[in-house]
């Protein structure tokens, strides 16, 4: 027997200890090794804490046998005592298949979590997923927050397996007799994450040396600490500001990492749609502060108008 079973169970137990007897938690299960190992470990460890665990499998209806796979997950979880719900979703492909499926999945998870009054949603992301996220962020030129990867705990979402590898989860399943599913999409090279997993990371391991995934995950952890500290600093500044009318001289004295965070927050406060503000938008606004040459007003997502008037940065919400 390997150390996989105690490692996974201990990782799960550490997070269950943070909740109270009588709580209900939701676990998202695709049927893959990671989520199946997580669900099984939860079913065992939650008993001691008198916590109710309910499974959820989201049927994206993107593969011919998706409903059969969803039913298989239901039956697997029933075998070790977990009730499992199936949520069918229709994926509206607007931002690429992978991103659109993720959006539909999280919306479904959020709906079910609210319906059952879950205090937390457990997700099966691993150390390998974390490494892939960081490498993708580097390739896209992302900032500190994106490079910090996924948090162990964010809102209602808990990711207890971020220190566990995919290989450990597969070993866990084999040792506990769980028949896990290999999603064909996880081998489809049209997805950037799959190319990172099957091509980029193996090449890095071969040319630079072993331990790349561990190093990337460690970097994510360190960067998250930095990003959290910078966010906190920016939030303390924002308390004293009117985000729709700010003094440019004061903003210019702030470190750029703080200034750009305040700009982003201000744009969303003025009505920019969630996720719509890009680095280019922030840079254009910053130029009104630090590289003022009489530029005209900026028209940004959500109809937000930004202009410099008498040394002040003015943001005007969209008015129909």
TrEMBL record:
On whether Nucleotide-binding is a keyword of this UniProt record, the answer is yes
> Pfam families, per this entry?
ATP_bind_3, TilS
A biological-process GO annotation: tRNA processing
Molecular function in Gene Ontology: ATP binding; tRNA(Ile)-lysidine synthase activity
The chain positions of domain tRNA(Ile)-lysidine/2-thiocytidine synthase N-terminal read: 25-198
Start and end of every tRNA(Ile)-lysidine synthase substrate-binding domain?
247-313
**EC main group:** ligase
Give a Gene Ontology cellular component term annotated to this protein: cytoplasm
Task: State the reactions this protein catalyses.
Answer: cytidine(34) in tRNA(Ile2) + L-lysine + ATP = lysidine(34) in tRNA(Ile2) + AMP + diphosphate + H(+)
Q: What CDD domains is this protein classified in?
A: TilS_N
Which UniProt keywords are listed? Answer: ATP-binding, Cytoplasm, Ligase, Nucleotide-binding, tRNA processing
PANTHER family, sorted: TRNA(ILE)-LYSIDINE SYNTHASE-RELATED
Q: What is this protein called?
A: tRNA(Ile)-lysidine synthetase
Q: Which species is listed as the source?
A: freshwater metagenome
């Amino acid at each position: 027997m390997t150390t996989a079973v105690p490692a996974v169970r201990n990782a799960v137990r550490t997070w269950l200890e943070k909740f109270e007897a009588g709580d209900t938690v939701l676990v998202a299960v695709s049927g893959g090794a990671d989520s199946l190992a997580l669900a099984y470990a939860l079913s065992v460890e939650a008993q001691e804490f008198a916590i109710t665990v309910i499974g959820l499998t989201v049927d994206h209806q993107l593969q011919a046998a998706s409903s059969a796979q969803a039913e298989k997950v239901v039956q697997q979880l029933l075998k070790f005592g977990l009730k499992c719900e199936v949520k069918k979703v229709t994926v509206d492909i607007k931002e690429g298949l992978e991103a659109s499926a993720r959006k539909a999945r999280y919306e479904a998870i959020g709906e079910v979590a609210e319906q059952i009054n879950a205090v937390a949603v457990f997700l099966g992301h691993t150390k390998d997923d974390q490494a892939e996220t960081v490498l993708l962020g580097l390739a896209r030129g992302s900032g500190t927050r994106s490079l910090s990867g996924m948090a162990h705990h964010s809102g209602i979402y808990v990711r207890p397996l971020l220190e566990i590898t995919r290989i450990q989860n597969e070993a866990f399943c084999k040792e506990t007799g769980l028949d896990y599913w290999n999603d064909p999409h996880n081998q489809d090279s049209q997805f950037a994450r799959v190319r990172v997993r099957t091509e980029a990371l193996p090449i890095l391991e071969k040319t630079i040396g072993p331990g790349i995934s561990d190093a990337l995950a460690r970097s994510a952890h360190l960067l998250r600490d930095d990003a959290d500290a910078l966010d906190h600093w920016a939030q303390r500044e924002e308390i004293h500001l009117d985000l729709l009318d700010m003094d440019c001289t004061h903003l210019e004295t702030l470190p750029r990492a703080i200034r750009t965070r305040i700009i982003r927050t201000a744009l969303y406060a003025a009505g920019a749609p969630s996720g719509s503000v890009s680095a280019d938008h922030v840079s254009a606004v910053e130029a009104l502060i630090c590289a003022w040459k009489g530029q005209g007003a900026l028209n940004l997502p959500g109809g937000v108008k930004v202009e410099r008037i008498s040394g002040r940065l003015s943001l005007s919400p969209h008015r129909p």
